[in-house]
Design a protein that fits this description.
The complex is a heterodimer of chains A (about 325) and B (about 400). Chain A is an alpha/beta fold. Helices cover about 50% and strands about 15% of the residues of chain A. Chain B folds into two domains: about 210 residues, Rossmann fold; about 160 residues, 3-Layer(aba) Sandwich (Rossmann fold). The chains are: A alpha/beta (about 325), B alpha/beta (about 400).
Chain lengths: ~325, ~400
């Protein structure tokens, strides 16, 4: 995040002329930096997708795409222009075609009307299904973001030094490490110090204040794993806070992590105890080992440690078996 | 509070009227009527039964109704908007080409008119002290203004668009006793079109301090974090597609933590690859709308066809900075006078303006506050009603 500029506010507000000049200055700087390119424009056009290729869209995208098309094309109309390429006989041919069309309208008109009504009803139904699907998806995403926010509230970024050191040791050699969910600043710093390229997948930037600028992807953990291609990540770090209070999320995230990791890729899950030293029932070391093994991970190990305030914690570490 | 004299009994003539109608002129008529009534003026509204300005089909029942205490008389709307020939003339006019006067009038009366409403004006118009017609474009205004021009006033809600240059429109605007403008920029436009000698004054619309609750918005909708808000009709003429294009490009370039929320009426085409970041909430209740303004990070008004932009001023009332299209004289003038936002002329300025606000929260806050001060000082109801009385010659 760029450092906040200092503004002097006087009178009734900001001087609009000054503001316009400031923006022009920034525009010029960006132009000179080459950031604005016309290549971006080409990416913005909504891709026109041939029928046979809608398969590559996700189901919700496909539903949206098809509904839009149905809503704009539901009406069957016989009103196409009548024309002919035969110049000399054109008046006669067009007259005959008009007569034919008139006759056809009498015969086919009722069928067309019924077909239009059917199409309209189907389009409306599709629209309703789309709205419901989009609302559900948005709600799921908001729930995940809320969960991450809650989890962040209970995390002290400074008490995880041991965890960060241990993670860096376990994932040493990985070029790109993805951290899903709320993560302490010290973890990112430690992993970067070890030479890894760290990508945070988390919506909040609260921990960036005053700190280094981290790369971020705005995505809730489970949603991100759903979208990422299979066998594409080298290493994943997941604080248990990403599924805190949500046992069903634990298995879902672990199973999707397995799919997202490359063969031989590694996963590290960090779990903290409550203040009295006990663990959340579905986050105990035994459960975590079984969950990872159930999803297919091998070489699953637990590394326990104590840190400040007599709290306990452990890292559950596993590897996706190399491809046969 | 300014009270209004008892011989002041205005009649508003507007093609659509109702709480569920989205449209600047319609909103303006409703708010004026309700505020005047609150101050003890007997107000009547003559309108049609139409709700949708695309079809003008009769939706509401005919007859006299009370809407928030205001007497509203609805008449059947007549339209030939679906007629192929009318559509063709409309397209020619919209493209800026000239059509002959006969076609012009034919088109103007065919979009929407109401013979019953005009007959009512003819028979009952004498009973009202002032006839206030709005907006400039429709048959209700064109024919209505001809009946008692000596006591008719038009609030044109004028935009710089081909329709404003029609000779029938010019004839109508020059025939009435006075014109009431929403902003200085709109009056300048009118002077350009009609000549310097027009009888008109700037009144605007009044606002009261709203009550809003940003937290309630986030509890109500599955939207998190900062978002840009657009409110109003979603259509090509309001540049909603431009905003969507700019927003997608901004995200593509910066990967910013930002969503776009669209509220209001009309169909909006959201690209399938942006479903997670562009939210179409449709029509909200008044309470939800204010909460939404309050929850937003910045308000964007991309439209160039504005004569006042009620939504812009509403967002300022909630202390939100605004980004407006610099090619719209009215909104750019609001921004210049208030110091409450940024005007963009192209994508680069849009992106840099947005980035500047996101990086400098104190600047965003200060702009929003400047906007709020502007609305409360310039557009409080006392000042607006005083300006309206002056414009209408009411003591």
């Amino acid at each position: 995040m760029a450092a906040e500029m200092r503004f002097i506010f006087e009178g009734s507000g900001i001087d609009p002329e000054w503001l316009a000049t400031e923006i022009q200055k920034r525009v010029e700087e960006r132009r000179l930096s080459g950031l604005f390119t016309h290549q971006v424009e080409s990416k913005l056009e909504t891709p026109l997708i041939p029928d046979q290729e809608t398969q590559r869209l996700s189901p919700i995208e496909q539903l949206h795409f098809s509904t839009e098309r149905a809503l704009s094309n539901w009406e069957v109309t016989p009103a196409y222009p009548i024309a002919t390429q035969k110049k000399l006989l054109a008046p006669v041919i067009i007259f005959l075609k008009r007569i034919l069309r008139l006759w056809a309208r009498i015969a086919v008109g009722p069928i067309i009307r019924r077909q239009s009504i059917f199409n309209r009803d189907v389009s409306s139904a599709l629209d309703a299904v789309r709205k419901e699907a989009l609302a559900r998806k948005a709600r799921e995403r908001a729930d995940e973001e809320d969960l991450c926010y809650l989890a962040e509230c209970m995390t002290d970024p400074w008490e995880t030094a041991q965890f960060s050191e241990e993670c860096a040791r376990l994932l040493k050699g990985s070029n790109v490490i993805f951290i899903l969910g709320p993560s302490p600043r010290s973890l990112v710093e430690t992993l970067e110090r070890e030479g890894a390229n760290v990508v945070r997948v988390f919506s909040s930037d609260a921990w960036n204040i005053g700190g280094a600028e981290y790369k971020k992807l705005r995505e809730a953990p489970a949603m991100f794993l759903e979208r990422i291609s299979e066998n594409s990540l080298e290493a994943l770090v997941i604080p248990e806070l990403a599924f805190w209070l949500r046992p069903e999320k634990l298995m879902r995230i672990i199973r999707m992590s397995y799919l997202a990791l490359k063969y031989g890729g590694r996963i590290a899950i960090f779990v903290r105890s409550f203040a009295n030293g006990s663990f959340c029932p579905w986050c105990s070391p035994d459960v975590m080992v079984r969950a990872l093994e159930k999803a297919g991970f091998s070489k699953v190990e637990i590394k326990s440690f104590n840190y400040e305030k007599a709290n306990k914690g452990f890292i559950a570490h596993g590897q996706k078996p190399p491809e046969d | 509070m300014n009270s209004v004299s008892s011989d002041f009994s205005p009649l508003f003539v507007v093609p659509r009227y109702g709480e569920d109608i989205v449209g600047g002129a319609e909103e303006l008529a409703r708010r004026f009527a309700e505020e005047l009534l609150r101050r003890g003026t007997p107000v009547t509204v003559a309108t049609t039964c139409a709700r949708d300005h695309h079809t003008w089909s009769n939706h509401y029942p005919e007859g006299s109704h009370l809407i928030n205490g205001v007497r509203v008389i609805r008449f059947k709307a007549e339209t030939k908007i679906a007629d192929h020939e009318i559509g063709r003339i409309g397209q020619i006019i919209a493209s800026g080409e000239k059509v002959d006067e006969k076609d012009e009038k034919r088109w103007l009366l065919s979009v929407v008119s109401s013979p019953d409403l005009i007959e009512f004006l003819r028979l009952e118009g004498r009973a009202f002290s002032h006839i206030i017609l709005l907006p400039y474009l429709y048959g209700t205004t064109y024919l209505g203004a001809q009946i008692y021009p000596e006591k008719s006033y038009i609030i044109p809600c004028l935009h710089d668009e081909p329709y404003a240059y029609l000779s029938s429109v010019r004839e109508t605007l020059l025939s009435v006793k006075g014109l009431i403008f929403n902003s200085n920029a709109e009056m300048s436009l009118a002077k350009n079109i009609l000549g310097e000698g027009i009888q008109g004054s700037v009144v605007g619309l009044g606002f009261s301090r709203p009550r809003y609750d940003a937290a309630a918005f986030f509890n109500r909708y599955p939207i998190r974090g900062d978002f840009i808000l657009y409110a109003g009709r979603r259509e090509e003429g309001k540049q909603t597609p431009l905003l969507i294009r700019y927003f997608r490009r901004y995200l593509l370039e910066t990967g910013g933590d930002l969503s776009l929320v669209l509220i209001g009426s009309g169909k909006v085409g959201i690209p399938y690859d942006s479903l997670a970041v562009i939210h179409d909430l449709g029509m909200l209740t008044q309470r939800e709308k204010w909460d939404c303004y309050a929850a937003s990070f910045v308000f964007c008004q991309p439209s160039v066809n504005e004569s006042f932009s009620i939504v812009l001023l509403e967002s300022w009332l909630c202390g939100k900075p605004c980004i407006v299209n610099g090619q719209c004289a009215v909104t750019a003038d609001h921004v210049r006078r208030s110091g409450g936002g940024i005007a963009f002329n192209n994508y680069e300025e849009f992106a840099e303006g947005l980035a500047l606000l996101l990086e400098n929260r104190s600047l965003a806050y200060a702009l929003g506050e400047a906007g709020r001060r502007y609305v409360l000082s310039e557009y409080n109801w006392d000042s607006v009603i005083a300006r309206l009385k002056k414009a209408l010659g009411v003591p």
